[in-house]
Amino acid sequence: MEIKLEDLHPAFQGVIPSEIITCSADGEPNATAISQVYYVDSHHVALSFQFFGKTNRNIEENPQVAVMVIHPETGVSYHLDLRFVRRETEGDTFDEMDMQLMAIASMTGMEGVFKLRGADIYEVKAITKIDDWD
Amino acid sequence: MSTDEPTLKQDKIINDLQAELSRKNKEIEIVLKISSEINSTMDMDEIASALLTSMDEIFGFEHSMILLLEESGDTLRVVATHGYGEQGTGSTVRMGQGVIGVVAQKKRMMRMSAIGAQRMYMQRAMANTNQAQAEEIPLPGLPNSQSQVAVPMLNKDDLVGVFMVESPKVHFFDKKDEVLVSILANQAAIAFYNARLNQDLVTANASLQEYSDTLEQKVEVRTRELSKTLDDLRATQNQLVEAEKMAALGGLVAGVAHEINTPVGIGVTAASLLEDKTVAFQKTYKDGQMKRSDLEKYLDTASQSSNMILKNLSRAAELIQSFKQVAVDQSTEERRSFPVKSYLEEILLSLRPKLKRTQLTTKISGDDSLTLDSYPGVLSQIVTNLVMNSLVHAYEPDDAGQLTFDLKQEAGRLIFEYADDGRGIPKKDLSKIFDPFFTTKRGQGGSGLGLHIIYNLVTQKLNGTIRCESEVGVGTRFTIEIPVS
Fold first, then answer.
1. Considering only CB atoms, which chain B residues are within 8 Å of A20?
2. Chain pair A-B, CB pairs under 8 angstroms
């Protein structure tokens, strides 16, 4: 049965942190935790771009990305096969992500420390339930 | 069986759509009910209470609050809460602080889930960057809030406040809740805005009523103040007129002294010569050396000296007589009957010291028998001021010119025309010359009162009229009309 992106909403909220796995042009992988995956539409998600780290460099070299999310109610893990499409620095998706970051940062007294540099839009190429892996 | 499959699918779709329709209808019904409730009152507390209670009863939103924007525009204050027990209203949130503050700042709705996890992630990220941990900001609401929907309450594009619902459950609100909360928050915003307007209107009405109640009293007080100011002004004006009159009189006295000095001086010289000659004559006589020629010489000198003394003392007496009348008239306000032309000549005589220093001549024309039953002192002051005005404004010190006075009587009125052939008055100033304190010689001795005093004396004291015609480069003419008696 096909897994829809809409069904994974609870897994995107960061109750259990997600992982993003990128790979450099010469094949060196890198994995790091991300706080949230933003649902954009049935075929796209957005990830926040805040730091100029290794993940960002890898995405520039290689647009293929894997994200692992865990459904907090079932504990089931899902693998999202993504491809980087574009970086948005304005518009509804950017504003929504920016507001959320501002709200959380201000709650913890860190206004201005965390800054959203862009909303990276990814096309969802495939969703795989981890149990389905061979 | 396979033939039934499409039918089953269609039935399911129809059932789903009917369920959706039924749910939508119910939502609309609920929204209308709540809208109706919050719009049925102008009391802000009642609006807030109706909204928050309905949200809980109908949608199960147990924790909600309404914050309104403070007048300062940078803070929101909690004005109503539901589901927080003891925790009540009054606490504040700065613009840009927490979900509520960010929503207010951006004027845009926000739904957040898993707030606790988000905060934890941010704190860990902070620790990884080796930055000092900042203190948590205390915000109104649940300390363990996990899900929040906050909606800006807008009237047109103006922020009225923020409506917020929250839950300790991680994923409590969905997209449908967002829409519902938005619709109701907007309804509440309009209701709040109207209530505020109503409150302002009530306050304004109360102020207006109070103002209206005290208006009569205020008008009375103000009228009294104005009346007093007017009295003060009149008193000051009278003082100024009096001062001006005294100054003119002072000038007259100085002029008189100068005029009399000459004949008296000649008289004194002649008398002292006569005295010297008499002493010498007595000595000659006592010595017994008197000759006929000495007697004849002395008699000639005595005759000439006594003649000179008599002539000059008579001139002094004549001057004193003229000045005396003008001075008395100027210092008193007695009414009497007097011949106008000869009186005018006497006034000009008193002005001779001033006129003597100029290249100006005077000319009086009119009927010698014209008599006026009026205030000669007032006429004297009018003429003096008119002449002085010409001297100061119409001519340069060395200009030659003529001052003309013409008198005639028409229908029981004396028409007195005074004209100079000086530089004239510019058109823009002509309408202002009788205004008090209007002068083109401010700081050069002009008080701006001369013509104003003339105007007042003519119109009030003599019950007459005065008008002025002037042409630049040609001269100025004043026409005064006053009743003969």
1. none
2. 86
How far is the alpha carbon of A27 from chain B, nearest alpha carbon, in Å? 26
Model confidence at A134, pLDDT cuts 50, 70, 90, reads: very low
Interface pTM, i.e. ipTM: 0.83
Beta carbons within 8 Å of A46's beta carbon, 6+ residues apart: A37, A38, A40, A88, A93, A97, A119, A120, A121, A122
Q: Reduced to 3 states, what is the DSSP secondary structure of residue B39?
A: helix
Q: pLDDT (tens digit, 9 = 90+) per residue, B49-77?
A: 878 887 788 778 889 898 989 988 899 99
Nearest alpha-carbon partner for B305 in B277, B282, B348, B274: B274
d(Cα B455, Cα B435) in Å, to the nearest integer?
A: 9
Test A108 with B122 for CB contact under 8 angstroms: yes
Q: What does each C-alpha distance from B331 to B249, B319, B322, B323, B328 come to in angstroms?
A: 7, 18, 15, 12, 5
Q: What is the largest CA-CA distance in chain A?
A: 46
Q: What top-level class would CATH report for the domain B5-201?
A: alpha beta
B185/B107 Cα distance (integer angstroms): 12
Number of CB atoms found within 10 A of residue B316's CB: 19
- DSSP β-bridge partners for residue A67: A20, A80
Residue B34 structure tokens: 């709540």
Of B102, B119, B136, the CB nearest to A99: B102
Q: What is the CATH architecture of B333-485?
A: 2-Layer Sandwich (3.30)
Of the candidates A114, A113, A125, the residue with the CA atom closest to the CA atom of residue A80: A125
What's the CATH number where A98 sits?
Answer: 2.30.110.10
**Interatomic CA distance for residues B466 and B454, integer angstroms:** 9
Residues 6+ apart with CB under 8 A from B363: B402, B403, B404, B405
Helix (H) or strand (E) holding B279: helix B175-286
> Can you give the residue range of the structural domain that contains A76?
5-132
pLDDT band at B142 (very low <50, low <70, confident <90, very high): confident
| Residue B193 C-alpha, separation from nearest chain A C-alpha, in angstroms | 26
A14 to chain B: which residues are within 8 Å by CB? 114, 117-118, 121
Number of separate domains in chain A: 1
Ranges of each domain in chain B = 5-201, 219-332, 333-485
- Chain B: closest CA distance from residue A127 (Å): 22
Does the fold of domain B333-485 match that of domain B5-201? no
Whether the pTM exceeds 0.80: the reply is no
**Residue B109 touches partner A, C-beta closer than 8 Å:** no
